[in-house]
Structure formats: C-alpha cells, structure tokens
Amino acid sequence: MKSYSLRFRKQIGEVFVIQPNDLGNSFLNFLFKKSTAYLKRFPFLYILPATVIIVFFIYLILGKGIVTITSLLQYGF
Amino acid sequence: MVFDKKKLANITVSFIFVIRNFFFLIFFPYKGMRKISLEKDYWQIVFIFLLVFIYFKLAYFLRENVYPATFTFLIFLVNFFLMIGFFYILGKVFNRKIKKRVLFFTFSYSLLPTLIWFFTTLFFYFILPPPRTFSLAGKIFSIFFITFSLTVFFWKLILFYLAIRFSTGLSFFKIVYLIFLFFVWYTPYSVLLYYLKIFRVPFI
Fold this sequence. Notes:
- The structure holds two protein chains of two kinds.
- Chain A has two domains: about 1-40; about 40-75, no CATH class.
- Chain A is about 75% helix and about 0% strand.
- Chain A is built from four helices and no strands.
- Chain A has helices at about 1-15, 25-40, 45-60, 65-75.
- Chain B has one domain (about 1-195).
- The model of chain B has no long low-confidence stretch (mean pLDDT about 90).
- Chain B contains eight helices and no strands.
- The interface of A and B includes residues 14, 21, 32 and 54 of A.
C-alpha cells in the first residue's frame, strides 16, 4: 500500500513538473489542448498521412523537381 | 572488483533506460520527454553521444569525408553546447529557474530523429546511390524518401519544442519566439558550415 502511495505521489509530481500552457485566451487554450492531444501519443499516426498529402502536393507543384531534391538530400549526410 | 561489477551493472541499466526512453519518444513523446527532463544519469548521454560518434565514423569511412570523424564530432559538440547555451541564457530572461541538466538531457534525447535520418540516409546512399533518375522507380523512391524525411522532420520539431518546453517551462508563444531567434543566428551559421564542407545538412 505504501509503495502504491509512493508511486502515485511520484507520478503526480511528474505530471505537474511544469505549469499548463497559457496562450492568454481561453479559446486558444482549448484549441491548443485539443490539437496537441493527438501529438502526445504516437504522433506518426497523424504526421504520416499529413506528410503523404504534403508530398503529393509538392509533387504536383514541382514535378520532376522532387527527384532533384532527393538527390540533394541524399548527398546531405 | 565488486565496485567494477556495480559500475558495469549501472552502465547496463543506463543503456536499457536509453532504449526505453527512445521507445517513449516514438510512442509517447510528451510523456517520454517529461520523464527525460527528470533524468540524472549521465551515462545515458554518453550512449547517445557515442551513437553520434559512430555515425560520424561510419560517414567518414564510407564516404571519405574531407574532415576526420573526431573533428566533425568536436564541431557537433560546439554546435550542441552553443544551442544549449543560447536557450539557457535567453530562457533565463523569462524564467530564472532553468536547470542546465534538464536542457542537457532533453536536447540530447531530441537528437534521436536526427540520428535516425542520418543513419537511414547513409544506408540509402549505398543501397541506392544518388543522383536519382527521372524513371518511374526514381520518382517512387523520391516520393518515399521525401515523405520519410518530412515525417522525421515534423517529429524532430515536436521533440525540439518539448525539449524547450520541459527545460524552460515557458509557454507556447515564448518558445516559438525563442526558436525564431535561434534560427536567426543558426541559419547563417549552418550556411558557413556548409561552405566549409563540415555539415551539408545541419546536425541538430
């Protein structure tokens, strides 16, 4: 029982290690909380589809230019 | 001898913690970075920096870079401490309670996406050496590679933001402002490093 209490206190201490974000407006705070909640757990679930859409648009705009960018990046390491 | 065994056990535990924290950063970045901000075990940093050094060594041997790996690693260390110093000094303006240790840990762990991108690019450089062609296969690989790079970049942005958030405790707008100020001097600095052929893509 004592160890559970200790773990609980440790967990609570960890959660409140920083103050909640304050954007100066309750609506903005609400929007920020809602949108960042998706990025707190396995963000790739949202990042990957978003990136695929972005790359699709980049391909539509640049066309073959995307191949040149890849070559440049591949030399970039 | 007993001391050595204990030390070895501690180092092994540190290594396991590094792996655990890496998984946290992939699956639960917020919770992971929060845990990392409370870390005090410096062996974990040693392991991360060792990974960075291994990367520079591999890149030097496989690509025959102009500069030796030790030199590139030293430049990386200079960049890293300049970055931490910048956020420490400017963060102090807004919040006096900033700890150097937390900055050191969070920023070290935020190198994970960087390491993954550079190791993967190194791997692809040998599997499919550039330049890419305009063939269908070349286009498909390009789309795949850009998607991968952008995904890692967005993940890096999240970890970078969280590193500043947990080490300075500042709010969103102040962090965005600090990041903007950081890139004001870091962009020309990166260009300089590019022209000196030290880093083509900034290793941050």
